[in-house]
Amino acid sequence: MRLFATLVVLGFRRWSTYRLATAAGAFTNTVFGLIKASITVGAIGAAGGELAGYDALTGATYAWLVQALVAPVNVFNWAELALRVRDGDIAIDLARPMDPQFAYLAGFLGRAIHQFIPRGAPPLLAGALVTGLALPSTPLPYLLGVVSIVLAIAVSFSVWWLVNLAAFWLIELRGVLTLNVVAMGILSGLVIPVHWFPDRLATVAALTPYPSMLQAPVDVVMARAEGTAALGVLAVQAAWLAGVLLLGRLVFARGARKLVVQGG
Amino acid sequence: MRSQAAYRRSFVSDLLGSVAIGLMEFAEVYIVFANVDVLGGLDFAAAALVFALANVGFSLADLVVGHVDNLPVHLREGTLDAFLLRPLPVLAQLVTSDVSLRRLGRVGVALVILTVALPLNDIGWTAAKVALLVLTPLTATAVFVGLFVCAAAVQFWLVEGAEFTSAFTYGGAYASAYPASIFSLPMRLLFTFVVPAAFTAYLPVLVLLDQPGPAGTPQWLGWCTPLAAAAVWAVALLSWRAGLRHYTGTGS
Q1: Which domain holds residue B45?
Q2: How many angstroms separate the CA of residue B176 from the nearest CA in chain A?
Q3: Which chain regions cross the lipid bilayer (chain A) (predicted)?
């Protein structure tokens, strides 16, 4: 556990070097938040003021919270492992006296913790000023929300890990990574709340870990899922996390067995 | 260019990825209209037309100059100096250094949606409207190309803050795919007169459908997309020149 904590801190410090990049990212998240909030509010207005339990204020809040979580959850890109597999550096990771999946998860969490405030606060602040935010006034949703956000980040890691492992069998991964981003983009609730999906698409989403990455934590923080319902959401997230992590371990073991490091 | 098709399996998977991105963007519009009939005064067919026109424009621009986004990498690694030594305009070299054919996938998706959406709309065709429809994707491409070059020019100063400009290039593309009438007035003015996203699809579609525009952006602006493109290009080329003059190398 101490080792894990150290690795988390190192992940944090690594990312805290890029200050201007972080500010730029936060700015972009905020502008996209403006556009997304306009779309959700516009759609809710067109539906007569209420859509699948969201009114204009909660709909806007949804968009802003998603924008605040996009960076910590790391929706758009994680190819570190794939690059190390491709250039053979993975051999170094295998020689280290710790489990690679565990070490990379720690680095991923450290990065997320670093991004949480500087990338999360500006969109929420803009949201509070522009549309107002509908957030619960009791502490419980926030406590559960923190757990849910950590689980969401870990689920995102576990899926990225699995996708990256394709590098053991394929040379060029860009297409595969893009497909993952696309699936995540639709099914996680990044653009439109999963609750708005037509039935068939909602079923598809429920069969994937993606809603556990954004829809779930936002539901818990906004207290759309309260009490036992919130615990149910956390349980679903934890189940996906355990399942996908385990699958990732099995695939990694197979990949490592057939690994031939290219070059000398 | 031929080199990109050489690794056929990689190219096909890249192409599929690009198609999937186009479909993902459209899925968003589709899901919204699964819940409502009209958004910002437009029905599904009209919104699909806006989406398609905006996407043809953006994805063509992305295909041709999307990689100027990589300028910060050239700046950091000093590889831009190689471009400076050759007797050709730097911008032209940068543009031709990597035209990404895989992005054709997204162009294809947008064109399919355009051909499906057009007959679904009730348009009183005149010669002028046909001309507008043919011209709009081209001028829209020009607008987005201009935006990409503006963004690249700013990188000479930002380097590490490259993502700032994504808010206007990709953000502009995102905003352009929706009826601008859903935005609040300040945002609508921003995405019309500062970042001319509304000119690439929404305003021309208003003209095609004979619909009045929302306050601040009247319908006749739909004819002015070439002007918007010219304005963006002027700003883009001037700031590119200024940026290149500002560049002093990364040292050896």
Answers
A1: 2-246
A2: 10
A3: 142-163, 175-197, 229-252
